[in-house]
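Exam review. A common question shows you a sequence with its structure tokens and asks you to describe the fold in words. Practice with the pair below. Do the first one on your own.
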Amino acid sequence: MARKVISVRTVVATGIGAAIFFVLMRFVAIPSGVPNTNLNLAAAIITIFGAIFGPIAGVLIGFIGHTLTDLTWGGVWWSWVIADALYGLLIGLFWKLFKIEDGEFGIKQAIIFNVIQILSNAVVWIGIAPTLDILIYAEPADKVFLQGVVAASLNAGVVLILGTILAAGYSRTQVKAGSLKAE
């Protein structure tokens, strides 16, 4: 029998996550004052879905959600689509450390979660996105690195607050392993 590469649960989570990501990024974006850089609650969605459902869901939510958003604005900005997909992948790679599904997302996991999301935001938005902007679109370095620093900071802040609240809240709905006892 062939092994499943992706579960039905992951496919459903990806569809729901990409839809929520799209709606938040498209309709709930708050301008930052830096051109083409917004405060987006969508950053918390890609993070929480990647942290719960793993790297496949994370990468697909980032890729699909950001691509759909850009298509509705008139053109896809591939450097940032790739960056969101890589961010979802990075968060998803560490999903087992967060123990959200185990109902054990406590202070230790919140710290691990936030250290990883802050580092992932920095790598993706300060390193990868601006570099791709320069290579693909010949954008000026000072402009794209400023956008990257602002995007990384805003996303990290959104995830620190909203993402941590969502992770803790969802984790509390999960049954902890070994919590059921036979009578």
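Now try the second one, then compare your answer with the model answer below.
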Amino acid sequence: MRFAITSGILLSLLMLSACQPSAQTPTAAFVVEDAWVRAMPPGQKMTAAYGVFRNSGSVSLRISEFSSPQYASVSLHETIVDSSGMSKMQEIQEMLIPPGEVFELEPGGKHLMLMGKYNNQTEEETDSVSIIFSLEKPHNIEFRLK
């Protein structure tokens, strides 16, 4: 079994809901960089996704919901070390990205857990994750992981 880490490229950002007119739209302010997903061995139904979420806008972005057509559930987790020195994962309810800041998802830290894989994709296929964030109205952004 090979646990190769596949580097990813952001293939698209797609805004699915309307936004309030402003000088800067949420999609222009929200960027996902260096998105990638850890490769899974055959039969495994859970993996993790990583990348950098950047808010180049002038208002905070609150991300509280994730989904994927390829997985039963997607949730935000953080690896923490407890008082006995044991490492474990803990779910995080939302991420808040202040203006001009980044939120990094990386191995050993915060990451997206992709659980309950629906099908066996080939290595050439990509996973996608939809992110719902709030500004003044909820917005939905989709990005693809490779």
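Model answer, second protein: Residues 1-24 have pLDDT under 50 and may be disordered. The chain has one domain: 14-145. Full marks require stating both points clearly.
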